[in-house]
């Protein structure tokens, strides 16, 4: 009897022991329901407790998207996700293939920076058929395109606001941009990729802010610089050679092109804020330096940190809470901020 009791006790202990071992093992591998809890707890941050996230970036060789990508990857890893990031090399066909590969690998969610928003229908069709929660970032499709899939959300900024802020930076100068006092502001516009909504709206709204304030404007030239520093330099160099002192303002759709334009301005012996104004968008570290030194009139913060935080929050709502987004409510915006010599120190690390 004693023996049988001991044997029973032992087998109960063994079963209990096994169960305990299984539970803790399962806990380690599949993670707690709250990944942030798991990271700060006993489970190592390198274990993909939150699942696997596929990230497509339109092209790695883009200054602002490099900052964005670095913050995004760090944030997701910190939260315990396994992160797979691919470079779409500015090639939409390649990006579609990458999305298909992620679908085959059964990633839990996708974060996509589309190459071409005009191709968003195809992207949305792919992720919808695979039923994968998806966050689009940085390049906004139309509300109509997004309404095709309710596990889809866009996180970015309202590009019109950044354009308006650029115009206001010029309006805030002593002569409202009219350096030569001829009653009008003569400018050149260095555009990003004109297919892109940011490029379109920044171009339109920067000038509109001046016109709305009753300032006459004259466009001397507009050229596409595809967000690229070298293109910004070449375009500004050519325009400065052609129009010389007539140019009072150089509007650049982003900072990288503005830094390039600054090189051309300096090479031409011109001086920003004295005989020419220069504005960009993004608040890249290099641009903040130039604003502080007085070599750029100002820039507009394109807040990568806040956009990443929102994108991850929306992804987790889709992934963990099963949230769906109603048509017309699928765009989530983060505010831009004007950066001038007066407040630039607040943005420098
Ligand atoms: C804009 C940014 C640009 C460029 C572009 C790519 O928001 O200001 O610098 O990164 O996105 O689409």
How does this structure look, described?
This protein has 349 residues and is α/β, with parallel strands linked by helices. It is 46% helix and 17% strand. The chain has helices spanning 2-30, 35-40, 63-78, 92-104, 120-130, 143-146, 159-171, 197-212, 229-243, 255-267, 285-293, 304-320, and strands at residues 51-57, 81-87, 109-112, 134-137, 152-157, 185-191, 217-224, 249-252, 277-279, 299-301, 331-334, 337-339. The longest helix is centred in the N-terminal third of the chain and has 29 residues, at 2-30. The radius of gyration is 26 Å and the shape is elongated. The model is unreliable at 1-47 (pLDDT under 50). The protein binds beta-D-galactopyranose (GAL). Residues 62, 64-65, 138-139, 192, 196, 198, 227, 254, 281-282, 302 line the site of beta-D-galactopyranose.
Strand order of the largest sheet: 2-1-3-4-5-11
How many β-strand runs? 12
The helix-strand sequence is HHEHEHEHEHEHEHEHEHEHEHEE
Name the poorly predicted regions.
1-47
Helix content range: 40-55%
**Small molecules (ligands, ions, cofactors) in the structure:** beta-D-galactopyranose
Strand percentage:
15-25%
Mean pLDDT: 89
Radius of gyration: 26 Å
Looking at the structure, what is the overall shape? Answer: elongated
What's the topology here?
Layout: H1 2-30, H2 35-40, E1 51-57, H3 63-78, E2 81-87, H4 92-104, E3 109-112, H5 120-130, E4 134-137, H6 143-146, E5 152-157, H7 159-171, E6 185-191, H8 197-212, E7 217-224, H9 229-243, E8 249-252, H10 255-267, E9 277-279, H11 285-293, E10 299-301, H12 304-320, E11 331-334, E12 337-339
Parallel strand pairs: 1-2, 1-3, 3-4, 4-5, 5-11, 6-7, 6-8, 8-9
Antiparallel strand pairs: 10-12
Bound molecules: beta-D-galactopyranose.
